[in-house]
Amino acid sequence: MTNWYCTLCDTNSETPEKPDTCPNCGADQIMMIDPDQGIPSTPEDVRDVARKRLKGICAAYPACDGNFDKICQKEAYGKPIGFGGAGQGASFRANALALSAVRFKTRVVGEHVEPDTRMNFLGIDLEFPVMAASTAGIERYNNVVKEKDFCRAVVRGSQQAGTIGWRGDTWFYTPDDSPALQALEQEKGYGIPIFKPRSQDVLKRLITMAEEAGCPAVGIDLDGCGSTIMAKHGQPVFRKSVAEIKELVEFSSLPFIAKGIMDPDDAEGCAEAGVKVVSVSNHGGRVLDSVPGTAEVLPLIAQRLNKQVLITADGGVRTGYDVLKMLALGADAVLLGRDIIRAAVGGGSLGVKIHLTHIHKVLRKALFMTGLKNVKDADENILFP
Where is the FMN hydroxy acid dehydrogenase domain (predicted)? Predict the structure, then answer.
């Protein structure tokens, strides 16, 4: 008899053979491991597993920067984008380069305090201002994980780490069969669904489903309007006017998020439409080549919005130091994308928890070494000119 451990629901099942699904939560057997072979306990453990499962797609390099020596970027030039960036990957690389150019001031003289990393996001108390980004479609990469299991892993792992996970939308999701919404319903609504900019009628249906699932907020990935694969599979996406965004904001009873913003005018238009959150993002460099890194445009958008709404940012964020850089540049909270995918693939909800806990630890150190007592105090004053 083997005591199988489920990395999704954190339970053990004693059976002679590896079960097809977890007897407790129903997760696919890929989520179950033999404890005698070792349960992941560090981010390195999780990434080692992810590297094997994502062979040929993502090598979980120490530097996830979109350079041409990375396997993901070698998939470009007309082939499936995989984990890489659009076109030649310039936007993917710009995210990493923009963050690497930001430098801290070291401040070590003063009262000794333990930094407070807590924040409230749309009425949700978080232990630190980092959330899992709205990724989707992982099931189609080497069949490494069932899509609903992936969604549940992100949601559960985020919650266990003291934060919340956003859930995405992709070409094989439909209102009648959305793994993200199914997972959110199963996890009692503790996650934030972000939908592609589908037709208004379809979006209203999806928003209603999110409300019924008990989700605390909802949003649309506006830069998803450039997705050709959605239209190819009979799910067209559209640019949205300020009036259309306002229509959705007023339709929903939930706080509304506008994601995929890279221009101050667009950000201002979303604020005028009544959104509660503007999410600054270039989609990980995956929708338009040759755009600036998120960290380059974030200060411009923050200045224009002038605290009218909350701001989140993603793009090239790999460490707790990167998180603090984004906060100092104007974000209220930060999203992690590719690293959370690797964490979920390599260790289920346990992997996500391990990774986010590590990010939290490094963020706390970064706050301490820059002399900040509270994460809310992060601004340009801690950055070297």
Answer: 84-385
Same domain, 285 and 140: yes
- How long is the chain? 385
Domain CATH number, residue 123? 3.20.20.70
Q: Check whether residue 157 and residue 12 sit in a common domain.
A: no
Let me know whether 137 and 21 are in one domain. Answer: no
- Residue 351 CB partners (closer than 8 Å, separation 6+): 7, 40, 46, 49, 50, 153, 157, 342, 343, 344, 345
Any domain includes 84: no
pLDDT tens-digit profile of 192-236? Answer: 999 999 999 999 999 999 999 999 999 999 999 998 889 899 999
Are 19 and 4 within 8 A, CB to CB?
A: yes
- Same domain, yes or no: 29 and 173: no
* Residue appearing with tokens 């238009």: 269
- What's the CATH code of the domain at 15? 2.20.28.10
Task: Show the tokens assigned to 296.
Answer: 């380059």
Count of the separate structural domains present in the chain: 2
Q: Is residue 50 a part of any domain in this protein?
A: no
Full domain range(s) for residue 216? 119-382
Distance in angstroms (rounded) separating the CA atoms of residues 33 and 3: 9
Tokens of 244: 């259309």
Q: Taking a C-beta distance cutoff of 8 angstroms, is the pair 165, 157 a contact?
A: yes
Identify each DSSP E strand in the chain by its residue range. Answer: 2-6, 11-15, 32-33, 119-121, 124-126, 130-132, 166-167, 192-195, 218-221, 256-261, 277-280, 310-313, 333-336
pTM of the model: 0.97
- Tell whether 73 is covered by a domain: no
